[in-house]
Amino acid sequence: MIDDDIKELQTNLAQTPNELAQLVQSFPPTNLTIKPAPDEFSVLENICHLRDIEIEGYTVRIRRILNEDRPFLYDLDGTRLAIERDYNRQSVSEALLSFSQARRHNLAVLGEVAKSEFEREGELEGVGEITLRKLLETMWEHDGGHLDELRRSLRLAHAQSD
């Protein structure tokens, strides 16, 4: 039996794709590539970032923690990826779809994990020791930060259009 806190994390993580889709639909298409500040992501960059971190970060980390003994897990430089991959020239709908599919896949894998496996450990670059349970908490915190950033951007977009 899985702990209630893990179930809650999984439920929350499952809601992120829908929350993102609703937020994206609230923006005028012309605002999707506007950065609220030079050091912040645009809406499109946020979605592409979440997609790439889900696929290249969380998917890999989950698999390795479950299949290896204390693996070293590399950090990803989201800002560098945004520049190198020119996120603002990508399709928001494709990025959102890819993120949603990857998140569903990760949650399906996690849904098959025994309670004891959530205590399996790895070492995350720049963080240190991390359990699978802590990785889920980190994912939720990361989602929350980007959802908050998108909500702020939406308020700014509405304030500027008034």
Walk me through this protein's architecture.
The longest helix is centred in the C-terminal third of the chain and has 30 residues, at 132-161. A 3-stranded mixed sheet has the order 1-2-3. A hairpin with a 3-residue loop joins strand 2 (121-124) and strand 3. It has 162 residues and is mostly helical. The chain has one domain (4-161): dinb family like domain (Four Helix Bundle (Hemerythrin (Met), subunit A)). Helix 1 runs antiparallel to helix 4, helix 1 packs parallel to helix 5 (132-161) and helix 2 (43-67) crosses helix 3 (78-84). The chain contains 5 helices and 3 strands; from the N terminus they run ααβααββα. It starts with a helix and ends with a helix.
SSE arrangement:
Elements: H1 4-26, H2 43-67, E1 72-73, H3 78-84, H4 92-111, E2 121-124, E3 128-131, H5 132-161
Parallel strand pairs: 1-2
Antiparallel strand pairs: 2-3
Q: Spell the H/E element sequence.
A: HHEHHEEH
Quick one: biggest sheet?
A: 3 strands, mixed
CATH topology: Four Helix Bundle (Hemerythrin (Met), subunit A)
Reported CATH architecture = Up-down Bundle
Shape: globular
N-to-C span = 52 Å
CATH class category label: Mainly Alpha
Number of DSSP-assigned strands: 3
In total, the number of domains comes to 1
The CATH homologous superfamily corresponds to dinb family like domain
What value does the Rg take, in angstroms?
16 Å
As a percent range, the share of helical residues equals: 55-70%
